[in-house]
């Protein structure tokens, strides 16, 4: 024991060693860079679940405990912050978001929260007034689910307010969009145009003409003729997304599918010191970007642990709202069974290569057919590549969303070691129309957080921003209450699928860290872990449920540095 202590004392120049030793060496700890005290600190450490103070040195936590003990870590250069009873939790991590899309939402026509078709058309009309003739009007964020009637907008609707300027408005879920006649002409979409595989062109049942609504991969017919963003606008979107995320309390964001073009742009921004946020990146596949990642291998912990490129994001189906989600049986309100975007022959070789190269697969699956197809494909790939041939013994593959599950498939996640990566806010958005799409019986496996957790899996929580607002406190509220933001619920919303507050917090911290192979580095407030913390105005573990989404982030700390302060 004495020799062990002597060895440890030789390491006392590092913050971690000083922390671990303390009185055993008879030394005073090194002064902290940042000391938070007089707070309500939820650590998610079973040994010390709630403390008053935490000290940070460099990018690590060096002390967790009482106000009195914390004084030993305060020096002349220490920034000491009296929290005044405010709450600290492990830094929130969004397991599934679209960074560039978050920024683009701020730069383009933001249709989030539009409550009627009339409201949507008025926003477009105002944008047209400010545009030059021929300029594109591009927006995102509308949802017809709570309109009266709840019907998709059409080219004819948009033509009334924009007969000359081409208009393209993406639905909130990103899996459908509506174009006016000018945009359809530029895209070459006519009555004779066939939908691409994995996509659909909605048509007027009377004359077969396109209505303007394009589903999933059919959206590419319009997106390919949109004016390309300049590199400067792309950089601006990324930086706006970073700023918005930090303001909401996120310390890490999982980018659910991008390109090497964007990755190189992110690298340049990190090198310029402009991104104080952790990013965990997945490229879209199958694609040339996927081939490059499989060839070059992952990048883990670049720029001081802030940037990792380790995943392949595949979209198997579309979304429930736009009827692109692939179902085992017909939609209850008509419209077929949705779409599978890829077949086994396109994906299985890529999945097997990913296992051999240590690449994590993250597959978007919303409908029960898409989820079963994905689980079947994962099971086949895992069976075809023995552990001896894998770069990582525990691949931790994920299904993104996992929204509608046949109840017989729920235990397969635990059995296969597959992580459900879910966004609780989808439930309080989708459940207004989920019953009409699915009927009551299929809702037994819809947004089934409780059922999944009870099988022993950890749910990686996130927001899917800009599909949803992107606020971690809304995600926690939705998971805990299964009510909308007005406190309303409906009988078919299955309240038995709610989770506890502790589980909801883990979804955005410890369990999110597990989903990125980082549970030893972050996810709880413990000495030696990364100094990533979120400071909140109120204690979300004890206040009334209705107050959770009204709570504010007052400070975001990433790698020991204050990245946002209200």
Q: Mind explaining what this structure looks like?
A:
By secondary structure, the chain is an alpha/beta fold. It folds into three domains: 31-85 and 524-566, Urease, subunit C, domain 1; 103-223, Diaminopimelate Epimerase, Chain A, domain 1 (Roll), CATH 3.10.310.70; 316-517, TIM Barrel (Alpha-Beta Barrel). It has an eight-stranded parallel sheet with strand order 8-15-16-18-19-20-21-22. The chain has a six-stranded mixed sheet with strand order 3-2-7-23-24-25, covered by helices on one side. Strands 9-10-11-12-14-13 form a six-stranded mixed sheet, with helices on both faces. Helix 4 (99-107) packs across helix 9 (231-248) and helix 13 crosses helix 14 (368-384).
N/C terminus separation: 47 Å
Mean pLDDT: 93
Sequence of strands across the biggest β-sheet: 8-15-16-18-19-20-21-22
The proportion of residues forming helix, as a percent range, comes to 25-40%
Describe the biggest sheet? Answer: 8 strands, parallel
Structural category: alpha/beta
**CATH homology group of the largest domain:** Metal-dependent hydrolases
Share in β-strands: 15-25%
Enumerate the spans where pLDDT stays under 50 for 5 or more consecutive residues: 1-24
CATH architecture classification name of the largest domain: Alpha-Beta Barrel
Give the count of helical stretches.
Answer: 21
Find the count of extended strands (DSSP E, 2+ residues).
Answer: 25
Whole-number total of structural domains: 3
Q: Predict the CATH topology of the largest domain.
A: TIM Barrel
Under the CATH scheme, which class of the largest domain?
Alpha Beta
- In angstroms, what is the radius of gyration? 25 Å
Shape: globular
């Amino acid at each position: 024991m004495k020799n062990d202590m002597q060895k440890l004392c030789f390491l006392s120049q590092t913050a971690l060693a000083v922390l671990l030793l303390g009185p055993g060496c008879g030394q005073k700890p090194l002064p902290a860079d940042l000391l938070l005290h007089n707070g309500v600190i939820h650590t998610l450490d079973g040994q010390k679940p709630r403390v008053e103070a935490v000290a940070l040195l460099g990018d690590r936590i060096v002390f967790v405990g009482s106000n009195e003990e914390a004084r030993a870590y305060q020096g002349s250069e220490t920034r000491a912050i009296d929290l005044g009873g405010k709450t600290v939790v492990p830094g929130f991590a969004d397991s599934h978001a679209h960074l560039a899309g978050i920024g683009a939402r701020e730069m383009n026509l933001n249709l989030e929260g539009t409550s009627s078709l009339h409201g949507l058309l008025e926003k477009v009309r105002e944008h047209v007034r400010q545009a030059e003739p021929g300029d594109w009007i591009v927006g995102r964020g509308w949802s017809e689910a709570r309109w009266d009637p709840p019907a998709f907008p059409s080219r004819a609707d948009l033509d009334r307010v924009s007969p000359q300027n081409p208009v393209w408005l993406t639905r909130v879920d990103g899996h459908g969009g509506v174009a006016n006649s000018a945009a359809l002409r530029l895209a070459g979409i006519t009555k004779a145009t066939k939908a691409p595989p994995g996509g659909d062109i909605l048509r007027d049942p009377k004359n077969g003409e396109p209505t303007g609504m394009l589903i999933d991969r059919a959206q590419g017919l319009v997106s390919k003729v949109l004016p390309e963003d300049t590199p400067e606008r792309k950089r601006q979107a990324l930086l706006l997304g970073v700023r918005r995320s930090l303001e909401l309390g996120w310390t890490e964001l999982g980018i659910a599918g991008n390109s090497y073009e964007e990755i190189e742009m992110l690298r340049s921004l990190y090198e310029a010191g402009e991104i104080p946020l952790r990013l965990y990146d997945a490229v879209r596949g199958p694609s040339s970007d996927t081939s490059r990642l499989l060839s070059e291998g992952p990048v883990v912990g670049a720029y001081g642990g802030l940037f990792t490129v380790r995943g392949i994001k595949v979209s198997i189906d579309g979304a429930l709202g736009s009827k692109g989600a692939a179902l085992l049986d017909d939609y209850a309100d008509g419209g077929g069974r949705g779409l599978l975007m890829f077949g086994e022959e396109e994906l299985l070789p890529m999945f097997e290569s990913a296992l051999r190269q240590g690449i994590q697969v993250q597959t978007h699956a919303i409908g029960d057919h898409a989820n079963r197809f994905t689980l079947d494909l994962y099971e086949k790939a895992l069976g075809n590549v023995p552990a001896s041939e894998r770069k990582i013994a525990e691949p931790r593959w994920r299904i993104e969303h996992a929204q509608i599950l046949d109840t017989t498939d729920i235990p397969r996640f635990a059995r296969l070691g597959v992580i459900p990566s879910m966004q609780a806010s989808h439930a309080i958005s989708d459940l207004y129309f989920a019953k009409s799409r699915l009927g009551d019986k299929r809702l037994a496996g819809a947004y089934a957080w409780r059922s999944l957790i009870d099988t022993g899996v950890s749910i990686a929580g996130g927001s899917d921003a800009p599909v949803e607002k992107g606020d971690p406190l809304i995600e926690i509220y939705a998971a805990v209450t299964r009510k909308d933001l007005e406190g309303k619920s409906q009988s078919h919303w299955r309240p038995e699928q709610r989770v506890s507050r502790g589980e909801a917090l883990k979804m955005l911290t410890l369990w999110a860290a597990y989903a990125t192979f980082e549970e030893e580095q972050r996810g709880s407030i413990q000495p030696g872990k990364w100094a990533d913390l979120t400071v909140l105005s109120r204690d979300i573990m004890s206040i009334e449920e209705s107050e959770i989404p009204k709570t504010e982030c007052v400070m975001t700390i990433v790698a020991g540095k204050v990245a946002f302060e209200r």
